[in-house]
């Protein structure tokens, strides 16, 4: 049975590489590595990524 | 022939000669620019100031390098422009394709693009406004690395994948991705990959599927972690 992780309101789940509000874990994954960050922090990370890589 | 008729014919001939001269200049420019069809390195070839008016290649293009080929230009429909010119772009031999369309915020549609010879086409469709990718042809063995391939591809609506997605891939910024495209992407996820993640826009998925439809689709690839961002 596939485990689904849901971020709380205003939060985003991450394992440091993958980000998402809902994570459908692969059948062989246990999800222990995921933790929540705030939506604001996620937005800052996205903006930082875009700035670093903007063409 | 009367003098008036002769004068009319002279005027028409003059126009024909002028058009022939323009065509000869056009041909000469493109023969040189494309090495009479032998040019292989198209990196930055149509970057920056190229647009729909100037982009009229004469020869088919089969590049081995096309990094930033259309970087920050304003060519909007590359597929249509190629069709009008009666030529094609075949990227199946390209080993370098980084940021091929990056910075082109006029871009609407691209023709079939193959990354079969390119291990890691970083940012290939990232940071551009493409809406339709006629075909994105991946390796059958799923070994392409697709880092940032669609980062900031916020207008992407239609994509048809061929081949196998065998490594992490993210469409998190593609909030208007169509239902058919999402279904197509999921269908081309490797059946044997392990520890890999597909990231989709939660907005796109919510707009396209009912909960039951989405769950059923996600369950076709239980070997993949699927993140809705």
Protein architecture, described:
The complex is a heterodimer of chains A (55) and B (229). Chain A has 55 residues and is an alpha+beta fold. Chain A is built from 1 helix and 5 strands; from the N terminus they run βββββα. Chain A has one helix spanning 39-53; strands at residues 4-6, 11-14, 19-20, 22-24, 35-38. In chain A, the strands form 2 sheets. In chain A, strands 3-2-5 form a 3-stranded antiparallel beta sheet. A two-stranded antiparallel ribbon of chain A has the order 1-4. In chain A, 24% of the residues are buried. Chain B is built from 5 helices and 7 strands; from the N terminus they run ααβββββαβααβ. Chain B has helices at 3-33, 78-85, 179-187, 202-208, 211-218; strands at 109-110, 113-114, 132-137, 158-162, 169-171, 196-200, 224-228. In chain B, β5 (169-171), α3 (179-187) and β6 form a beta-alpha-beta unit. The A-B interface holds A 2, 12-13, 17-29, 49-50, 53-55 and B 71-72, 99, 102-103, 123, 126-127, 148, 151-152, 168, 172, 194-197, 199, 202, 218-219, 222-229.
Please state the CA-atom Rg of chain B, rounded to the nearest Å: 22 Å
Give helix and strand order of chain A, one letter per element, not per position: EEEEEH
Shape of chain A: elongated
Q: Which class best fits the helix and strand makeup of chain A?
A: alpha+beta
| Strand element count of chain A | 5
Oligomer: heterodimer
Largest sheet of chain A: 3 strands, antiparallel
Element string of chain B (H = helix, E = strand): HHEEEEEHEHHE
Task: Assign a percent range to the helix content of chain B.
Answer: 25-40%
Summarize the main sheet of chain B.
4 strands, parallel
Supply the number of helical segments of chain B. Answer: 5
| Helix amount of chain A | 25-40%
In terms of per-residue confidence, which ranges of chain B show pLDDT below 50 for 5 or more consecutive residues?
Answer: none
H/I helix tally of chain A: 1
Report how far the terminal alpha carbons of chain A are from each other: 42 Å
């Amino acid at each position: 049975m596939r485990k689904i992780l849901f971020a709380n309101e205003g939060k985003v789940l991450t394992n440091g590489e993958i980000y998402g509000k809902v994570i459908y874990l692969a059948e062989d994954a246990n999800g222990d590595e995921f933790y929540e960050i705030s939506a604001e922090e996620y937005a800052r990370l996205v903006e930082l990524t875009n700035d670093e890589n903007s063409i | 022939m009367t003098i008036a008729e002769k004068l009319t014919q002279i005027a028409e001939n003059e126009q024909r000669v002028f058009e022939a001269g323009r065509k000869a200049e056009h041909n000469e420019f493109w023969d040189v620019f494309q090495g009479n069809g032998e040019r292989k390195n198209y990196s930055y070839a149509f970057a920056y100031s190229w647009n729909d008016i100037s982009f009229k290649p004469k020869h088919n293009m089969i590049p081995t390098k096309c990094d930033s080929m259309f970087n920050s230009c304003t060519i909007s429909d590359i597929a249509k422009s190629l069709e009008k010119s009666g030529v094609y772009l075949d990227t199946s031999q390209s080993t370098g394709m980084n940021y091929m369309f990056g910075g082109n915020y006029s871009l609407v549609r691209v023709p079939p693009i193959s990354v079969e010879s390119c291990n890691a086409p970083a940012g290939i469709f990232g940071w551009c406004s493409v809406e339709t990718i006629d075909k994105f042809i991946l390796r059958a063995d799923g070994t392409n690395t697709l880092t940032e391939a669609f980062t900031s591809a916020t207008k992407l609506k239609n994509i048809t994948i061929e081949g196998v997605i065998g490594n992490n891939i993210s469409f998190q910024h593609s909030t208007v991705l169509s239902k058919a495209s999402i279904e197509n992407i999921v269908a081309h996820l490797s059946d044997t990959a392990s520890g890999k993640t597909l990231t989709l826009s939660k907005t796109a998925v919510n707009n396209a599927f009912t909960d039951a439809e989405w769950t059923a689709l996600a369950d076709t690839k239980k070997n993949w972690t699927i993140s809705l961002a």
